[in-house]
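Quick question, first post here. What does this chain look like in 3D?
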Amino acid sequence: MFDNITIFYKDAEMHINKFNAGKVIKLLKKRIAEGQVTAQNYAFLANAYCEKNDYKKALKYAFMSKKLDPDYYYADVLLIVIYLNDQKISKAERYLNNLLEKVPDDYYFADLLALEVYKRQNNDGSKQKIIDKFCEKILNYEEDGSNCLIIAKCSAYLWKGKAKSALKQVLKTLKADIRYLFDSSCIGILKTILFLYIFDELLKVWPSYNMCTNLNMIFCPKDERYYELADPIFNNSPPEKLLKYIEKAIKIKSKPVYYIRMADIKSILGCHEEAIEIYKRVLEEDDSFIECYQRIAGEYRELEDFSNALKYINLAILNNQENTELYFSKAMYLSSLFKFDEALEPPSPFDTKHPHAENETAYFISYCYSYLEDYNKALLYINKHLLKEKTYDIYKYKMNLLLDLKRYEEAIETAKKALEFQENEFIYYKMAICYGRLKDFSTALVCINKSILLGGTDKYGYYIKSEILGALGRNKEAEKAYRKAVELGYNKDD
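> Answer (accepted):
Ran it through. Tokens below.
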């Protein structure tokens, strides 16, 4: 029934293993950086951020998933779930409508989401007819063994206040075929759309569920089973245990992909030199595993050996020139070697068409231009970044660029936007400088006092305060502030 059932299956595996969202995020980002840029991987990231209740980042990656594949159902599903959990029901309804337009009429999962959306709307009962309509639609479906339909019917019964009927549905299904208990797509759907009350009821009836092994894993060859168990994304076991799994797989059957996974786990353990040696051995035996070049570059990056990292990323590009993510990695390594001019040479990261081209890379390019003191170009790219992401750090960075360009009024306005995110002594310090350059010394004094109040013992803050007081003709206070600055370590020759 699902066009993209794999995502639900993998999602279920993550939940079955009680995955650590932080670890999942880290490893998925690593895989994306290595070239596995897919709608599914971005959807995984969105789902992981949902687990951390970080809906802002979840949204970001859900949209990236949707951008890569507009027809990918799960991107719309994630957007609905995110907005539901962020209490933005109207937005959830909008994407629900998108989903309903795309999917077949018998897409039970969409009906489930529709029920949840309409039930959460604040209304006077005007939506009850719509809710009843979806409930009846679900309950009238002829049973076909579909897991989603089973869950949908349970949910419809619960929403109609027929808990006994819902329980009977579950028990009837399990009695008919106990394999449903082991079906990861079924549980994955439950967890994904956050119908936790159903899931909790299942755990009450079958408390040993989490100790069960997925049937598909049981029936696969033993070496493949250990290989799957060693996957750090879908198994939250300690890396030492994952290493034992992959060692068992290799003992049964030696495959290059098994050694690659072993190296991946070594990397997680911080054994970067060992990981490099394993990746190199794989390449020596079979140079078709070109992904190892990028992995080796990444390991050298962890060792802060950027020269070797650059060497291997160039080899990765030579073997996979279509992977635009590699060009971004190359630019990053060049910047780490302070070769900013080379980092910006075509094809620069922004010239490529990878998913980051309109956000993270814009910031990176701006950063390079700022080091080259080309502040106008740096400002151009940071403004592109701000179209996609508005944060305290971005506004703070832009404020500094405007200050370098002596565009003090704009710097002040940008500083005020940064303050909307958080009050910070550095922002007030820079605002004081801007107002001072504009000869508005009274406002400058207010800002520097706020900076000192927040920062406490900053020597430069007291020095700037002495300068402002001097400009206002308050010489005794200026002298006192200067003495305080010296007391804190200020030296005019600094």
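Residues 1-19, 178-219, 352-357 have pLDDT under 50 and may be disordered.
Residues 392-494 form a domain with the Serine Threonine Protein Phosphatase 5, Tetratricopeptide repeat fold (CATH 1.25.40.10).
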